[in-house]
């Protein structure tokens, strides 16, 4: 069965239209509670080369404006219509009887598809907050920096970090690790990774790329991408699958080979607490990862962007903070929207023994 819930999202997919976000109606969630149980996808680690192999010969993109008091950052993002066109083409040549993830009319189907092909409002909020913090001189204390985005989807928040790392001429860190996690491998391959490639292309291009257009994916382009990452000691990996203990173990594989200085680990998440059914699992993963980062790798911090309430479903910030406190964590508001409509916030999360980070 399928039910349509109004989550209070500002849009179906964020589109630039004179700076305004088009409201195209409530988000549709496919409710599977009365259907047969759906087998969850177990967590799996994916190397960069494996994700690159799924890229088509050309992708269409459009930039999204990330705004903060520091200015505007134009972040390229693969067009949703282009993703769907690739999925439909793959569906036509596939001999699988099950529908391709992301092609149904529902935005979210629990344990099947979690909406990762679209860009949601709170992801833009978190990206803007990060852009402003980095522009003001956010102190990254570790010699090795590890940024993780859980429920990455189109990955705007981690793209802001990636853009920042690529532009540093004399970085203070020895290495950077970017881990992008989404329930669906298809989302990682068709949205997350293309957006990382587009961000790199925009930064290294000698001429300013058009705000919308096509990028030819050639072997030479991919070779230059991989080499530049290697030269800058930036490592990218993906994680697909459900939130459980095995997922947490995959989040923190990073070690400092010289073991002489701490690792700075930053966890990012947006629109991940819309359902009460998944808040507990998400919070457990987050707190365990934070604790592990603090005990083993040096220091961890986390930022979670969300609506105050997701109408018709029951999730939201209050429910998240309740579960967070029950599990021994702490949360404080790092940012709050001032505009009308459903409130949006960014919560800074600490484990029981964590300290607020400098920014």
Automatic annotation (TrEMBL):
EC annotation from Swiss-Prot or TrEMBL: 2.1.1.85
Cell location: Cytoplasm; Nucleus
Start and end residues of each stretch annotated as Disordered: 1-30
Domain of life: Eukaryota
Alphabetical keyword list: Cytoplasm, Methyltransferase, Nucleus, S-adenosyl-L-methionine, Transferase
EC class name: transferase
GO biological process: methylation
Gene Ontology molecular functions: protein-L-histidine N-tele-methyltransferase activity
Biased composition (Low complexity): 1-11
GO cellular component assignments: cytoplasm; nucleus
Major site of localization recorded for this protein: cytoplasm
PANTHER family from the UniProt entry: HEPATOCELLULAR CARCINOMA-ASSOCIATED ANTIGEN (PTHR14614), HISTIDINE PROTEIN METHYLTRANSFERASE 1 HOMOLOG (PTHR14614:SF39)
Annotated family: Belongs to the methyltransferase superfamily. METTL18 family.
Name of the protein in its database record: protein-histidine N-methyltransferase
Organism, as annotated: Letharia lupina
